[in-house]
Every structure is written in structure tokens, then in C-alpha cells.
Amino acid sequence: MSADEAPAVVDARGLRCPLPVVRLAAAARDAAPGTLLQVWSTDPAAALDVPAWARMRGHRLVDVDARTGDDDAADEWRVTVRVGP
């Protein structure tokens, strides 16, 4: 991902499994191949579920970023995928 290539954001904060993946899948259906999508989630399962979904659906995992709060525990995950063909 280049510095000037901003992903389209799928905001799934506050939603529990499987909804972050469901929202991401809906966005991927409407996206052109090569599009970057980034799901924002407060559900720790998204850090595992989104990469597994991407692999099964032929998309490419670009990044998994755990955002930490004041207590150094991950409070939010931002998972970026590139839509496949």
C-alpha cells in the first residue's frame, strides 16, 4: 500500500462477530478488483476472522494494525485487504 493510497473504510466498531466480516464482504462485492478496504473493529476476533475470510475469498491481506489505548491493550483493530479478482 503506497502512502497516497487511502483505503475505503468499513466502520464496524461496536459490532461483534460475524458482523465486521459481513460488512466487509458487502463492501468487497461492490468494489473493483485492486481496491483497498480497511475494516475498523473493536471485536478482537476481527484480527483473525478478516484475514481468514480474505484468504478464502481470494483477496490479499495487506495489514493488521492493533490500536492501543492508555492501558497498552488493543482497543481497536484495523485490518486492510486488497480486493481480488
From TrEMBL:
Residues 10-34 form the UPF0033 domain. It holds the Pfam family TusA. InterPro entries: TusA-like, TusA-like_sf. Belongs to the sulfur carrier protein TusA family. PANTHER family: SULFUR CARRIER PROTEIN YEDF-RELATED. This is tRNA 2-thiouridine synthesizing protein A.
